[in-house]
User: Fold this.
Amino acid sequence: MGCMGCMGCMGCMGCMGCMGCMGCMGCMGCMGCMGCMDCMDCMDCMDCMDCMDCMDCMDCMDCMDRIDPHLAGDEATTLAQFLDYHRVTLLGKAEGLGAAGLSRPLPPSALTLGGLLKHLALVEDHWIQVRFLGRPEQEPWASVSWDDDPDWEFRTAAQDDPESLRELYQAACERSRAAVAGVDLGVLSVGANRDGEHWNLRWILIHLIEETARHNGHADLLREAVDGTVGE
Assistant:
């Protein structure tokens, strides 16, 4: 509640409804405001300047604190918030792990946390950038021979730097979020399926929620196998 008056958050379009301005890495210097009776006079808030250019804390993928979606939000808000909830969950499952942890499978499955980060980055780009917007596939996906190597993203994740994997996923999520912001859920995709049918944005967002949530179940088991960490 103290953050409502925080000078650093004045550029943010509503900390009370965001996915976690208080958890935003830019706001970490503002923790002293939690017990402050007058945020406007709190010098600690000056460390929160990273939020000055933030038009919506929902856009900050550095926010590792998950906030439950609003109980009475409209449809578009509810879908966006549930998707962000699961995006942040995956990042949390991979948080703090190096190459060994991100590349450790849980036999007999070959899945790894690094592979999930790379796969879901592909899923975000494929469904939003390629299928919904009709844009050409970009690297690192464009040069892959998917017919010859259909599990390329899972297989090659072990070769990637841990931070680059997290950044790859974060960047894909940010592209997706920017692309669909304010777009009506009934808008049809540019791309079509084999029968020439188009997906509306509602279907695509629900699919992204479903796939991200399903892989978060895998991530739960994988993280526990790495270091015993459990939790939501």
